[in-house]
Amino acid sequence: MTNGSEVDRFVKDPSLLLELCLEVIDRLDAGSENDDTAAMEAQLREIAKAIDKLDKIGVAVPDALRAEKTRLAAALGISAEAVQVLSHLADELEELLKGLKTRLGRTSDGDTSKKPRAKRSRSAKTSNATLRDLIVEALRQHGGSCHKNDVLKYMEQKLDGKLLPGDMEWRETTRDHAWQNNACWERYQMTKDGVLKTGSPRGIWELSEDHA
Q1: CA distance 22 to 8
Q2: 179 CB neighbour count, 10 Å cutoff
Q3: Distance between CA atoms of 86 and 60, rounded to whole angstroms?
Q4: H-helix or E-strand spanning residue 170
Q5: Which site among 68, 117, 171, 177 is 20 to 30 Å from 183 CA-CA?
Q6: Is residue 164 situated within a structural domain?
Q7: Are residues 99 and 145 in the same domain?
Q8: Residue 46's domain spans which residues?
């Protein structure tokens, strides 16, 4: 969270906030830009087939071949990760813009009649630290790796009867509840902190070796 002085800086010059958003988007987008994705996917499939064939006939697989498979898988995973984060960010910004238009009394059909100001919810929500602990616990229960939906299902069971008012607020753009949305953002932060692996297959959350 930003402190008061940082917020004041953006209040005095809101254009700085736009510049910051654009810089963040540009950096994320740099990880998603890969014109050779299709070729890399084809190479990965062929290498995987070759390794499988060698394994079946009992021939030692060259280390260079396994290394290339790992490199391609990691590169494709990073690209998919960036696209996923950008998509999630787009949904969040759409929700923010929708709220801003409501504050200005604007509707989708151009009606500018006065509307009540839509304040950002201040309802209590489960802390990010709690969400992080539950993500780690869920993954350990599944052997260190499982699909996002299984993680959220485990968390929902653990949070049954403990969810706070703000947790159950519905996010129309992302089609999920606030706690689920926050868990996905916390998962992204966990990859940056080295708790979860980067470059995992789409939809798969994995603990890093140091936290398994």
Answers
A1: 20
A2: 23
A3: 41
A4: strand 170-171
A5: 117
A6: yes
A7: no
A8: 34-119
